[in-house]
Specification:
The chain is of the alpha/beta class. The chain has 9 helices and 25 strands. Helix content is 31%, strand content 26%. Strands 5-2-1-9-21-20 form a 6-stranded mixed β-sheet. It has a 5-stranded parallel β-sheet with strand order 11-18-12-13-14. Strands 22, 23, 24 and 25 form a 4-stranded antiparallel β-sheet that branches. The termini are far apart.
């Protein structure tokens, strides 16, 4: 099935309505205009701005984080199919969804990640886990109950757990800092002990020593007890058991579970957790040059929105260049960028990464890009977090990619100026 069938316009199918999928679809339309037919398949009819779900436990209405997909798809002449993906058939170049088969010339798989808390016995039953808005609302109820008991004079213990195979612990660090600030503002922090445990060798291990130092200093300033190399084995009511023999108690347990691929595609090469194996620089699926995998669905070891956007841009640019007969302008150079909310201030991090191939430390800071490694904390970074939370939904509502055009150049310039002044 070549791209000359059907009037010579290549058929590009994007699977997934999250960061990587929408970025790829909108970037492709921007680069190709009407020279391709683009179909977006999503199992939901709305995009969730997931980085800001951290505010839900502290009162934000989840509906404010939702963007309906129908309008940006219509605006950009992208066919939208709301359905789970049932099968990818690379030999026939077809995708099967509920009720129909969709042929493609190029395919972008961006079906995301899911959580598997049941890997840790007792975690699903006893912990408030963070992933979906529903889970964040349950955490809100848990925090409110904790604060009520503290107001009544009861001492409370909050325990945070990062288990093995979690692929992005950053939001849990945001929540521990936000919780500390919130409890202080409620006047009950003195009755609540907070302990943070992670299986990793350092705090936010993937993002290198500077962020570990920032977190260590913040824990000390806030009176939070932090433990690295604490590998959780099982959870019981009120108690967590670790591989090192330690047992910690809790009244409220908060955890970010192990990751797995959200959808399984036996026809594509994948690792033991279902993440699709890719060529790092191009995002092409190994052995399938017309299929690309981006974001949480793919095998890059860190799962994060900004990295998903970069991967979406790369895949879209690679496809656009092939359609247009040009050399691609982009290859995937993994650089994480995040702003970590703490309520009283925020921490900015820009971290150039490289894949190591080591299971214990799958990525590390690139030594040859030290000038790009920046970390800084300030109340002003909360403004940066707010602006990103306005800018990206605005772009996606209009069917425009995040990393493109004059608006992004302005946003990027602002971040550069702020990082020059407020990060080292």
């Amino acid at each position: 099935m070549g791209m000359q069938a059907n009037s010579g316009r290549p058929r590009i199918v994007v699977l997934g309505g999250g960061f990587g999928g929408l970025e790829a679809a909108f970037y492709l339309r921007m680069r190709l205009g009407d020279r391709a037919r683009i179909t977006l398949v999503s199992d939901r009819d709305r995009f969730l701005f997931k980085p800001n779900t951290i505010y839900i436990p502290f009162g934000l209405d989840p509906e404010r984080l939702m963007i309906p997909l129908a309008e940006p798809a219509r605006r950009k002449a992208i066919a939208l199919i709301v359905s789970p993906v049932r099968e990818i058939d690379p030999a026939r170049q077809e995708v099967r969804v509920d009720g129909q088969t969709i042929p493609y010339d190029y395919l972008v798989v961006a079906t995301g990640a899911g959580m598997r808390p049941e890997e840790i016995p007792g975690l699903a039953e006893h912990a408030c886990t963070i992933w979906t808005p529903e889970e964040m609302l349950r955490l809100r109820a848990g925090i409110q109950k904790l604060a009520e008991k503290a107001r009544e004079g009861q001492s409370q213990e909050v325990l945070f757990v990062v288990p093995p195979n979690n692929k992005c612990s950053g939001p849990l660090y945001e929540i521990v800092f936000m919780l500390d600030t919130w409890l202080r503002r409620q006047g009950v922090r003195s009755r609540v002990s907070i302990t943070y445990t992670t299986y990793e060798q350092g705090f936010i291990q993937a993002f290198g020593p500077r962020l570990h130092t920032v977190v260590t200093e913040e824990f000390s300033r806030r009176g939070i007890t932090g433990h690295t190399r604490y590998v959780v084995e099982r959870v019981e009511p009120g108690r967590v058991f670790y591989r090192n023999g330690e047992v910690l108690t809790y009244d409220l347990l908060i955890s970010f579970p192990p990751y797995v691929a959200a959808a399984s595609f036996p026809s594509l090469p994948a690792d033991d957790r279902g993440f699709i194996q890719t060529v790092l620089e191009t995002r092409q699926v190994v052995g399938h040059p017309n299929i690309y995998a981006v974001g949480d669905a793919a095998d890059f070891p860190v799962k994060q929105a900004f990295l998903a956007l970069l991967q979406g841009d790369t895949a879209a640019e690679q496809i656009a260049a092939r359609v247009l007969g040009h050399e691609p302008k982009l290859h995937f150079e993994p650089t994480s960028m995040c702003v970590m909310e703490q309520f009283d201030k925020a921490t900015f991090a820009q971290v150039p990464l490289r894949v190591t191939g080591r299971p214990d430390l799958p990525v590390e800071v690139r030594e040859d890009a030290a000038g790009l490694y920046k970390v800084g904390s300030s109340g002003l970074w909360r403004l940066g977090k707010t602006l990103l939370g306005i800018y990206l939904p605005w772009r996606f509502r209009n069917g425009e990619p995040f990393h493109a055009g004059l608006p992004w150049e302005g946003m990027e310039l602002g971040l550069k100026v702020m990082s020059a002044v407020l990060a080292r």
